[in-house]
Specification:
heterodimer, A: 562 residues, alpha/beta, Flavocytochrome C3, Chain A, domain 1, five-stranded parallel β-sheet, five-stranded mixed β-sheet, B: 521 residues, Ubiquitin-like (UB roll), Fumarate Reductase Iron-sulfur Protein, Chain B, domain 2, Glutathione S-transferase Yfyf (Class Pi), Chain A, domain 2, 16 strands, 44% helix
C-alpha cells in the first residue's frame, strides 16, 4: 500500500473555531504546526453559528461577572458539567474574545464603542456578544485571516480516518487526500482533535454535511475515554420547510431579540411551561415545549409551531437578524411580516472526548477542544457557550500540545497498522456486493431520529441499540462504493464516514439506555424517579473490543447539585 | 403530477477521461428546489461519485459555487426554474480536479499575497474601543464567504490573472476601511491592478451576500488612490480634464447635437407625457443622429421632449476612476440644470439613452445629492426603453411598421441591466419591429470591456475582453447586434471591424422602422 509521510511537531485535526485557534496558539511556540481541514479552509461548521459568544464583560449589564456566568452554565447544564472545565470557560472567555478582536474580528458595538451583548436563554444578564446573526461566520472569517498570517501549514480537504497510537502515546493520524484519493500519514509529537460534532447522525439536523462524528469514532477506536455521549442538544428552532431546508438553524437570537412562540391557536404557549422565562427557557425545555404542542395537536400543519417577530421594529430585525431575513426569503417568507415555522433539530453534542484542565485526553500527547469534547456543558449547553468553548479550549489545547511537543520526541510507527487501515479503505472500493452508503445512512439517521430523540423511552432505545449493534456487525464491513474511483469521490468519503457515524450513534444510544432518569437533554417519558442522575457516563473501547460504559462521580468545585 | 427537469452536468475525471463531457439527468422537481438539491438528488439516486463541494446548505460557508446556466453562483441559494433546463458546470479559470470540483490554489495564493489580515504595529488595548460608525462600511463588505463565484464571472480575470478578481480587491478594501489596519492597502491595490475593473457589476449581481464590490471596494479604493496622489492613466485624465473644461468628456468634432438643434422644445399635439432628454456626451458630440432618432421616437409616441441646451456631463468617467472632486461638482451642476428645466417645463422625468449616464444619475448622483443636501434630485430618471415600455406602456406604443428583415441579437450594457435593472425592455422594443428575428445570446450580459475607465486607460486589456465578447456575439449567428449605450456601441463597432456584423443603437433602429413604415403608407 503506497502512502506518503508528512512530519510536524504539532498536528491539529479539524479547522473550525477550535482547530484554527489551537493551531494559532501552537504556532506561537516556535514549532512546526500542521492543521488538517476536511473541508476548504474557512468552510467549517463554525461559520454557521449565528447567535453569539458568551462572555461576562458586563458591557451592557455591569453586574455580570465570571462567577455568574459559571453559575448559569452549571445550572443550565443540569449540574452535570465538569466544574473545573466550566471555570476555565468563564475565566478565559474574555481574553479569547479580545484575541479575536486583535486578529481583526468586528463584533457589534455599544454606544461607548465596546462589544455589545444580547440576552440569551437561561442567562442572568445580557452576556452574548455578537456580529448581527452571523457571529460564527465573523469568527470563522477572522480565524481564517489569522491562520493566513501565521506559519501554520494548512492541508485542506484531507480526511483523517484513524489516530495512530504507539508506545501508549499518540503518533499521528492516517488520512486520505480527498482531492486525489492519495493516502497520507501525518506524524506529530502531539495531536489536537478539533473535529466538531455529529448532528448528521440524525435525519433532521442543523449541522453541516461534515459533522458526522469522525472525531468521536477515531478517539473511541484509539482507546480514548468519552463522556456524556447521551447528551444531544436538540435546538428548539430549526426550519420546517421547504423540505430541503428542514432542520436549518433559526438562531436563538430571534427569541433573544424578543421573538415569541405561538401555537396554531395563536397562543403564546410558553406561559404554560416556563412562565417566568418564557421563550428564553433552556434549549432542552423550549424544545420539549414545542414538541408537546405539536404532539397534542396544536402545531402547524407542517408539524412545527410559529415564531413571530412581527411586533419588533423592522430596523432592529434588519440590523441584528440579517441572515434570518435572507434564509427565510429563500423559503418565500418575509419574517418582518409573517411568522416563521419552526421545530426542533439535532444541533449540538454536549458529550465527547473526555478532557482534563489541560485539554488532555486519556492518551498522552492527544489533546482535544471544541464540540468533539465533553464535560464543559454538562446536560445542556447554553446558547452562546459553544463559540466561547471553541476559543477558550482551542487556545488551551494548542498551548498544551505545544508544551508536550517541546518535551517529547516523535514516536516510532507501526507500518502494519497503517497498512491495515489503508487496506480497509481500499477494500470498500473493491467490494462488488454490499450496501451503498446512501442507503446505510438513511437507515441510521432515521433510526436515531425516531428512537433516540427528544422524548426517550426504554423500548425505543433498546431497539436502537440492538439495531445499531447489528448495523455495526453486518453493514459496516459490507459498505461498498458504487463507482470505484479515488479522485474526489463523495461516495467513497461517505462510505468511510459511515463507520464513524455508527460508532458515535452507538455511544449515544448505549449511554442513553444506561441513564434511567431524566436529566438535561436526556428526557425520558418513562423516567425512573429514583435516578436523580447526578453522575456522568464514561465510555471507552474495552480490551476485548467491546464498548464499556461506566458511571463516574461528577467533578464539583463550587456548586453542589440540589 | 410530478414535474421533471433536465440537468446537464459537466463530468470529468482527468485520471480516466480523455476530455470533459456532459451527462444528462432527469430530476424530479419539488417547489423551492435549489441547484444543490438537484446535485444531491443526482448523487443519491444516480451516481454517488459525482463530485461537487458543499457543507452548510445555507449560504454561510461558500463551498458550493458552480456555474448555473453559464453564470457562477452558490448552488444552495440558487433556485431551480422548473421550466428551464439546467446546465451545471465548474467555475471558470481554475483547473478541474473532478466534475464540479476545481482547484482553488491560485485564489488562495493570491489571497495570501495581499497579507489579508489586520496588520498592527502595536498590541491593542484591552478592551479596544471601536465605534459603530467607524466600522459601518467594513461591516457590509466583510460579509464575504469566499465562495469565489465572482472570480469565475469576472471578465477581467477571464482574460488575465494580472487582476486578482473582485473577492480579493474586496479584501483590500475591507482592510483599508478598517481603522486598525496599518498597511498601505492603496499601494497594494495599485500593485494588484486596481484600475483593471470595468465596474460591470457581475460580481455584485451574483454575490450571495449582495456586497457592492464595484462601488464599496473598487471605486472606493480608486478614490483613495486619487486622494493619495496616484495619477490617473493618460487616457482617463484626458476625459476628466475635458469634463472640467467643457462639460463634455470628449473633444468637439462635428457640429454637436445641442448646437445643431435650434430649439429646446419638441412638442406634439395632445401629448401623453413630457420628458427632459439627458443626451450625455457621446450622443451630443458623436452620435447626433441617434439623438435626433430618440427625439423622433418619443414624439411619435406623443411625448413632449425638452432638450436643455446648457446640459453638462454626468461625469461618469470621474466617478469610475476616483476623481471625486470633478465627479461631485458635475453631479451638483447636472442636478441644478435639470431641476430648473423640469420646473420651467413642468415635468418630473428625465430620459436617458446612455446606459452609463443613466446609471451614474441613478446610482451616483442621487445618493450623493441626497446625502449632501438632505433631499434627492427632484426628478425621476428613466432609460429610454424602460420609459417607453413601463411608462408609456407597451400597449400604447405606436407600432413601427417598416420591416427590418434581419437576425438580431442584443448586447445588454452592464450599466443598463445590472446598473439600472433594465433587462427585458430593450428586447421587447426590438421584438415590436416587424421582420426582426430576435436571437437570444446566453452571454448577452457579459461586459464588452469598455467601461470603468478600462478602454481609456488600458486599451490592450479592453480589446482582449472585447475579443471574447465578439466570440459570444458571433456564436449567436445573428447579422446585427443592437445595444443601448453609446460607449458599448463604439466598442462593438471597433471589435466588429472587418466582419459582416452590423452594430446598431436601438433608437436608431426604431426610427428607421418608423420611417420605412411611413414610406410604405
Amino acid at each position: 500500500m503506497n502512502y506518503k509521510t508528512i512530519m510536524c511537531d504539532v498536528l491539529v485535526v479539524g479547522a473550525g473555531g477550535a482547530g484554527c485557534r489551537a493551531a494559532i496558539e501552537a504556532s506561537k511556540h516556535n514549532l512546526d504546526v500542521i492543521m488538517l481541514s476536511k473541508e476548504l479552509l474557512g468552510k467549517a461548521h463554525t461559520s454557521m453559528a449565528e447567535g453569539g459568544y458568551n462572555v461576562s464583560l458586563g458591557n451592557v449589564d455591569p453586574d455580570d461577572n465570571p462567577e455568574t456566568h459559571f453559575k448559569d452554565t452549571i445550572v443550565g447544564g443540569n449540574y452535570l458539567n465538569n466544574q473545573k472545565l466550566a471555570e476555565i470557560l468563564v475565566r478565559d472567555a474574555s481574553e479569547r474574545i479580545f484575541d479575536l478582536e486583535e486578529y481583526g474580528a468586528l463584533f457589534d458595538r455599544t454606544p461607548e464603542g465596546k462589544i455589545a451583548q444580547r440576552p440569551f436563554g437561561k442567562q442572568t444578564w445580557r452576556r452574548t456578544a455578537y456580529a448581527s446573526d452571523r457571529t460564527g461566520s465573523e469568527i470563522m472569517v477572522t480565524l481564517t485571516e489569522a491562520i493566513r498570517k501565521e506559519s501554520v501549514r494548512v492541508f485542506d480537504e484531507v480526511f483523517a480516518t484513524k489516530i495512530l497510537v504507539e508506545e501508549g502515546r499518540v503518533a499521528g493520524v492516517a488520512s486520505i487526500d480527498l482531492k486525489y484519493g492519495d493516502y497520507l500519514i501525518f506524524r506529530a509529537k502531539s495531536v489536537v482533535m478539533a473535529t466538531g460534532g455529529a448532528g448528521r447522525i440524525f435525519s433532521v439536523t442543523s449541522n453541516a454535511q461534515l459533522d458526522v462524528g469522525d472525531g468521536y469514532g477515531m478517539a473511541y477506536e484509539a482507546g480514548c475515554e468519552l463522556i456524556d455521549m447521551e447528551m444531544v442538544q436538540f435546538h428548539p428552532t430549526g426550519m420546517v420547510k421547504p423540505e430541503s431546508a428542514k432542520g436549518r438553524l433559526v438562531t436563538e437570537a430571534v427569541r433573544g431579540e424578543g421573538g415569541i412562540l405561538l401555537n396554531n391557536e395563536s397562543e403564546r404557549f410558553m406561559h404554560r411551561y416556563y412562565p417566568e422565562v418564557m421563550e428564553l427557557a433552556g434549549r432542552d425545555q423550549v424544545a420539549r415545549s414545542i414538541m408537546t404542542e405539536v404532539l397534542e395537536g396544536r402545531g402547524s400543519p407542517e408539524g412545527g409551531v410559529y415564531l413571530s417577530i412581527g411586533h419588533l421594529p423592522k430596523s432592529i430585525v434588519e440590523f441584528r437578524l440579517e441572515s434570518m431575513i435572507e434564509q427565510f426569503e429563500d423559503a418565500g417568507v418575509d419574517i418582518r411580516e409573517e411568522p416563521m415555522q419552526v421545530s426542533p433539530t439535532a444541533h449540538h453534542f454536549m458529550g465527547g472526548i473526555k478532557i482534563d484542565e489541560e485539554a488532555g485526553t486519556s492518551i498522552p500527547g492527544l489533546y482535544a477542544a471544541g464540540e468533539c469534547t465533553g464535560g464543559v456543558h454538562g446536560g445542556n449547553r447554553l446558547g452562546g457557550n459553544a463559540l466561547a468553548d471553541t476559543q477558550v479550549f482551542g487556545a488551551l489545547a494548542g498551548e498544551s500540545a505545544a508544551k508536550f511537543a517541546k518535551k517529547n520526541a516523535h514516536t516510532g510507527i507501526n507500518r502494519d497498522a497503517i497498512a491495515a487501515e489503508f487496506e480497509k479503505l481500499e477494500a470498500m472500493l473493491e467490494r462488488k456486493e454490499g450496501v451503498s452508503p446512501a442507503d446505510a445512512r438513511e437507515e441510521l439517521t432515521e433510526l436515531m431520529w425516531s428512537k433516540v430523540q427528544i422524548f426517550r423511552k426504554e423500548d425505543d432505545m433498546q431497539h436502537a441499540v440492538k439495531e445499531l449493534r447489528r448495523i455495526q456487525k453486518e453493514i459496516v464491513p459490507n459498505i461498498k462504493v458504487d463507482v470505484p474511483v479515488k479522485r474526489f469521490n463523495p461516495g467513497w468519503h461517505q462510505a468511510i464516514e459511515f463507520e464513524h457515524m455508527v460508532t458515535t450513534a452507538r455511544m449515544v444510544a448505549e449511554a442513553a439506555v444506561m441513564r434511567k432518569g431524566s436529566r438535561g437533554a436526556h428526557y425520558r417519558v418513562d423516567a425512573d424517579p429514583n435516578d436523580k442522575g447526578y453522575y456522568n457516563i464514561v465510555i471507552r473501547k474495552g480490551k476485548d473490543g467491546e464498548m464499556e460504559l461506566r458511571k463516574e462521580d461528577l467533578v464539583i468545585t463550587k456548586i453542589t447539585p440540589p | 403530477m410530478t414535474k421533471t427537469i433536465k440537468a446537464k452536468v459537466f463530468r470529468y475525471n482527468p485520471d480516466s477521461d480523455n476530455e470533459p463531457y456532459f451527462q444528462d439527468f432527469d430530476v424530479e422537481y419539488e417547489p423551492g428546489m435549489t441547484v444543490l438539491d438537484v446535485l444531491l438528488d443526482i448523487q443519491d439516486k444516480y451516481d454517488s461519485s459525482l463530485a461537487f463541494r458543499w457543507e452548510c446548505r445555507g449560504g454561510q460557508c461558500g463551498s458550493c459555487a458552480v456555474k448555473v446556466n453559464t453564470i457562477a453562483r452558490i448552488a444552495c441559494r440558487t433556485k431551480v426554474d422548473p421550466d428551464e433546463d439546467l446546465l451545471i458546470e465548474p467555475l471558470e479559470k481554475m483547473p478541474v480536479i473532478k466534475d464540479l470540483v476545481v482547484d482553488l490554489a491560485q485564489t488562495t495564493f493570491r489571497l495570501r499575497r495581499i497579507r489579508p489580515y489586520v496588520a498592527r504595529d502595536k498590541k491593542p488595548q484591552r478592551p479596544e474601543i471601536i465605534h459603530a460608525e467607524e466600522i459601518e462600511k467594513v461591516r457590509e463588505i466583510r460579509k464575504c464567504i469566499e465562495c469565489s463565484a465572482c472570480l469565475s464571472n469576472c471578465p477581467i480575470v477571464h482574460e488575465t490573472w494580472d487582476y486578482p478578481g473582485p473577492m480579493i480587491i474586496r479584501q483590500l478594501a475591507r482592510l483599508e476601511l478598517d481603522p486598525r489596519d496599518v498597511e498601505d492597502r492603496i499601494a497594494m491595490a495599485m500593485d494588484e491592478s486596481l484600475y483593471s475593473c470595468t465596474t460591470c457589476k457581475m460580481c455584485e449581481d451574483i454575490c450571495p451576500k449582495k456586497i457592492k464590490i464595484p462601488s464599496l471596494a473598487v471605486e472606493l479604493l480608486r478614490a483613495k488612490a486619487v486622494e493619495a496622489g496616484y495619477p490617473l492613466a493618460e487616457g482617463q485624465q484626458g476625459f476628466v480634464d475635458q469634463i472640467v473644461k467643457t462639460g463634455r468628456a470628449v473633444p468637439e468634432k462635428d457640429l454637436p447635437l445641442l448646437k445643431e438643434l435650434n430649439t429646446a422644445e419638441f412638442f406634439v399635439e395632445n401629448p401623453r407625457g413630457r420628458v427632459a432628454f439627458f443626451t450625455g456626451c457621446l450622443i451630443d458630440y458623436r452620435m447626433q443622429s441617434t439623438g435626433k432618432a430618440l427625439i423622433e421616437v418619443l414624439n411619435r409616441n406623443n411625448i413632449d421632449v425638452v432638450v436643455p441646451k446648457e446640459q453638462w456631463c454626468c461625469a461618469s468617467p470621474a466617478f469610475r476612476t476616483g476623481d471625486l472632486n470633478t465627479a461631485h461638482a458635475a453631479a451638483r451642476r447636472v442636478t441644478e440644470i435639470f431641476e430648473k428645466a423640469c420646473e420651467k417645463y413642468d415635468c418630473d422625468t428625465v430620459v436617458v439613452a446612455c446606459a452609463g449616464c443613466g446609471k451614474t444619475l441613478r446610482e451616483d448622483h442621487r445618493p450623493f445629492i441626497e446625502e449632501e443636501r438632505g433631499k434627492p434630485p427632484r426628478y425621476k430618471v428613466y432609460d429610454m426603453a424602460e420609459y417607453l415600455i413601463q411608462v408609456v406602456g407597451k400597449e400604447n406604443i405606436i407600432p413601427p411598421k417598416g420591416e427590418i428583415d434581419l437576425k438580431i441579437t442584443y448586447h445588454e450594457p452592464c450599466h443598463l441591466g445590472r446598473g439600472q435593472h433594465v433587462f427585458d425592455e430593450p428586447i421587447q422594443l426590438l421584438k415590436m419591429i416587424p421582420g426582426v428575428d430576435y436571437i437570444e445570446d446566453p452571454y448577452k450580459n457579459r461586459c464588452c470591456g469598455a467601461g470603468g475607465g478600462v478602454r481609456a486607460g488600458q486599451r490592450e486589456l479592453s480589446q482582449k475582453i472585447a475579443t471574447t465578447k465578439k466570440e459570444y456575439i458571433e456564436a449567436t449567428g445573428a447579422e446585427m447586434v443592437t445595444t443601448e449605450c453609446p460607449f458599448c456601441t463604439i466598442q462593438l463597432n471597433d471589435m466588429m471591424k472587418g466582419t459582416e456584423m452590423q452594430v446598431r443603437y436601438i433608437p436608431d433602429l426604431l426610427a428607421e422602422s418608423y420611417r420605412k413604415g411611413d414610406a410604405k403608407t
